[in-house]
Amino acid sequence: MNDFSLAVPMTALPLTLGRYRIAGTSRPLPGGRFAALLSIASGRGSASTGRLVRFDTAFPTPDAAERYAIEQGRDWVQAAGLRQTLPY
After folding, report:
1. CB within 8 A of 83, min separation 6: which ones?
2. What is the pTM of this model?
3. 8 or 13: whose pLDDT is higher?
4. How many CB atoms sit inside 10 A of residue 22's CB?
5. Backbone angles phi, psi at 55, to 5 degrees
């Protein structure tokens, strides 16, 4: 079993950006620091997709980890929008 559980609660309400819903949370690490976790979801029902992202950086507080996760989620959504507008 790995050290990451899909049952980790997302403490921040999901933020909707276009067709994506992002939510960040943190989990405690040994030594009193915190890891950032990000959930990115899109679609509905059987057409829904989701990603869970763990970051290697350790943060001093849960709030700092959650803010980092949300910032990374916003950057990902912005980059995804740019990829959709580029010609192939």
Report:
1. none
2. 0.75
3. 13
4. 24
5. -110, 145
Residue 18 is which amino acid? G
Half-sphere exposure of residue 50, counting CA atoms within 13 Å on the CB side? Answer: 13
Order of strands, edge to edge, in the sheet holding 20-28? Answer: 15-17, 20-28, 34-42, 49-59
Q: For residue 48, report the phi and psi dihedrals to the nearest 5 degrees.
A: -85, 150
β-strands 15-17, 20-28 pairing: antiparallel
Q: How many residues does the chain have?
A: 88
Instruction: Read off the tokens for 46.
Output: 């059987």
What is each CA distance from 70 to 28, 44, 66, in whole angstroms? 17, 21, 6
Q: pLDDT tens digit string along 38-61? A: 999 988 878 888 889 999 999 999
Torsion of CA 68, 71, 73, 74, to 10 degrees: 180
6 phi and psi angles, rounded to 5 deg: -65, -10
